[in-house]
Design the sequence.
């Protein structure tokens, strides 16, 4: 399975994805789920994928192929005039890929479905974040819904809902995301490290920071251990139930 989070902040966008696609006692596979395209000083576009691996790889390959020589491979996300138009292109490409793979055309409930988080900024507009569904439709993040999750969302959502603040720093946002991911990893074998992290700072049109967080990363281990101890300490400090 998968867990990916895209989050809007006053400073820009922050994205994180796990890399596990299959899980079992003796069957664990790791694949990258975060992909970026950049035109220096003009646009930065990042997508994260969840769902059928053949579908998501075909989607990314098609999008990437159309960026190699845009004049010969329209439509390209590198020539779309707005993030909304980029979202439309990605959504239509996803829908087409699913239709091609499925036995009887595009079906949202088929084994070939996938969902995508798209984030980025094009010069002249604000950073934007979209959640794209296998049916080819999408929604945009805003004040009421400032972050999107795909994959195994339920385990890591409570901490995001309680602690998210659009004014928080990128450093605090990374901490928040790692707690969310750690909670998911602890609860579900189908999500696992390493994690891919990316920061897009507003009006830079570039990836400001990017790294892969491994299972033995010292900061991640501090967050995982510290969060567990803090929860236990808080629980112990709450009043006991009276019979």
Sequence:
């Amino acid at each position: 399975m998968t867990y990916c989070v895209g989050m809007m902040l006053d400073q820009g966008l922050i994205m994180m994805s796990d890399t596990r696609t299959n899980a079992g006692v003796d069957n664990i596979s790791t694949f990258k789920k975060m992909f970026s395209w950049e035109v220096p000083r003009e646009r930065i576009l990042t997508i994260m994928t969840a769902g059928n691996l053949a579908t998501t790889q075909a989607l990314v390959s098609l999008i990437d192929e159309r960026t190699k020589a845009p004049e010969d491979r329209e439509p390209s996300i590198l020539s779309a005039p707005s993030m909304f138009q980029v979202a439309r292109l990605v959504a239509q490409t996803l829908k087409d890929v699913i239709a091609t793979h499925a036995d009887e055309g595009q079906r949202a409930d088929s084994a070939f479905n996938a969902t995508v988080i798209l984030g980025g900024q094009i010069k002249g507009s604000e950073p934007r974040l979209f959640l794209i569904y296998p049916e080819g439709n999408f929604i945009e993040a805003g004040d009421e819904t400032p972050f999107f999750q795909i994959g195994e969302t339920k385990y890591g959502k409570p901490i995001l809902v309680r602690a998210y603040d659009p004014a928080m720093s990128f450093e605090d946002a990374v901490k928040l995301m790692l707690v969310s991911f750690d909670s998911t990893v602890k609860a579900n074998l189908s999500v696992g490290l390493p994690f891919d992290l990316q920061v897009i700072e507003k009006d830079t049109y570039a990836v400001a920071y990017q790294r892969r967080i491994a299972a033995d990363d010292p900061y991640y281990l501090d967050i995982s251990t510290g969060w567990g101890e803090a929860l236990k300490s808080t629980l112990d400090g709450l009043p006991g139930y009276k019979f």
Remarks:
- The chain has a mean pLDDT of 93.
- The chain has five helices and twelve strands.
